[in-house]
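Re: Re: ligand-bound prediction request (bumping)

Still looking for help on this. To restate: I need the protein modeled with S-adenosylmethionine bound, output as structure tokens. Inputs repeated here so nobody has to scroll up.
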Amino acid sequence: MNTIKRTRTHANPLANLQEIHFEGFGNTRPIFVDVGAFKGEFMAQLADKFPDHNFICFEIRTPIAEHLREKFKDRPNFRVFDGDAGRNFRNILEPCLKEGAKIEEIFVNFPDPWFKDRHKKRRFITTEFCHTLATWLPAETPIVFQTDQQFLFEETLEYLKETPYQSIKRFEDSVHGIPTDWEKVKMAKGEPIWRMTFTRD
Ligand SMILES: C[S@@+](CC[C@H](N)C(=O)[O-])C[C@H]1O[C@@H](n2cnc3c(N)ncnc32)[C@H](O)[C@@H]1O
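Reply:
Sorry for the wait, this slipped through. Here it is.
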């Protein structure tokens, strides 16, 4: 499939109850994880820079996930999972950790902002999610968060204050020199981008 059907509405992650499982890659290569991989160009270019790593793409919208599977079908170090990344994060990543792989970085690039107050629980990074993460994800695993929504960045900083994720580093430029699809659109319009990496202490 060469095109992705355009959809205007965001997928409500709380309505997607699909449980997905993974037994790991069967090797201990370090892993990059992309939450909401969309067209997958960021991960494709990252793989060109890091050919010895493994790559996990989460994408909630099934047609887009199918497009990603097709795009990466000849790359044995890629896996694409559809469903809500939040619900399935542990199912997918913990087996990789158990087989001895390190999670190099987790990317939450330009997540759906869910502007309305009543939709805040649909955001990917929430205080509750970070508390759960802290129970199983190694402390040193960096979580990279980028957004073009200043309010979302500031509210996410507020959420983090109540979690064990207290080591926060802001940065200015595209991660590994690779702009994401969304980032390219925003940069072309001259719009600002807010970026940080956070870890547990
Ligand atoms: C605004 S786009 C950003 C895409 C890409 N990360 C980029 O920077 O170009 C958000 C993407 O995340 C996906 N998404 C939203 N919520 C998700 C969830 N809970 N789990 C997995 N994917 C999700 C959407 O379908 C969409 O493709």
